[in-house]
Amino acid sequence: MTLSLKEVTKRFGNHTAVDHLSLEIPEKEMFGFLGGNGAGKTTTFRMILGLLDITEGEISWNGESIGYNKSHLIGYLPEERGLYPKLKVRDQIIYLGKLRGMTKQEAITELKWWLDRLKVPEYLDKKVEELSKGNQQKIQFISAVIHKPKLLILDEPFSGLDPVNVEMLKKAVVELKEQGTSIVFSSHRMEHVEELCEHLCILHKGKQVVHGSLRDIKRSFGKKNLVIHAEFPLDFLQDHAGVVKYKALTDGCELQIENEDVSQTIFAELQGKGFIRKFDLEEPSLNDIFIEKVGASYE
Ligand SMILES: Nc1ncnc2c1ncn2[C@@H]1O[C@H](COP(=O)(O)OP(=O)(O)OP(=O)(O)O)[C@@H](O)[C@H]1O
């Protein structure tokens, strides 16, 4: 099943929050949906969920229109968390499970499985307000997946979690993908996206500025990173032809270069100057690509 957005536009008054966005999100994939603050990510998620009307364009799921009528097929972890603080975890999840067509017993069985999986079985009968922010996040995650959705939308799923819990949740998300769930995932942490997503898009002021597979995006970016550790000064490389960025390191430097040929030239020039401990040509990071495409012009 594929989620498809065709020329989707959302206007609030005369402000265009999402501008002719077209995307195909393949089945059983984790798709990275990136953008700076105010880029239009949450607005797009709300349109997919049928919580906001589309101004123009079309969203479909496996060829059929999607919206509130398909909410039992969709799981959503919103950026602003929405649990009821005074309710016990058990009652909360039973309530949400029932809204999505589960029986009380099915919801409890599934909840217990997830609480064990996320190593917090003792929270079953705790009120949400008694849990730490990170642990509330786990419960919110469970509420998004309790009904085994076919499409899971995760808005900043790892924010507020410590590194151990980030890893635990990442593993859970990867397992869901392997079991066949299509996942759309937004994050400001580029390393998470690099690790988890095969395809991605970057939105900027509502418009798509990058779209494709992570590998193709990196390849087409052209520029490379070059890390050099040497036992002689390297600062002459700051003004070298083909060097776009220069960053001094304690024992060398990290360069962004225009293309691979520049590294050949630099390598030839370093010969005979002294001992080179490292000369490493790397793909650009997604962070580099994001910064170049979106710049510092966040809202
Ligand atoms: N209900 C609304 N009424 C008017 N403008 C809105 C509304 N919701 C969002 N916007 C505007 O639409 C734009 C996109 O907002 P959106 O929340 O989708 O961004 P985002 O990419 O999710 O940002 P962030 O990463 O900060 O969460 C912003 O300019 C925002 O102010």
Describe this protein's structure:
The protein has about 300 residues and is an alpha/beta fold. The chain has two domains: about 220 residues, P-loop containing nucleotide triphosphate hydrolases (Rossmann fold), CATH 3.40.50.300; about 60 residues, YebC, transcriptional regulation domain (Alpha-Beta Plaits). About 30% of the residues lie in helices and about 30% in strands. A six-stranded mixed sheet has the order 6-7-8-3-9-10, sandwiched between helices. It has a four-stranded antiparallel sheet with strand order 2-1-4-5, with helices on one face. Helix 2 crosses helix 3. About 30% of the residues are buried. Bound molecules: adenosine-5'-triphosphate. Adenosine-5'-triphosphate binds next to strand 2 and helix 1. GO terms for molecular function: ATP binding; ATP hydrolysis activity. It holds the Pfam family ABC_tran. This is ABC transporter ATP-binding protein YhaQ. Keywords: ATP-binding, Nucleotide-binding, Transport.
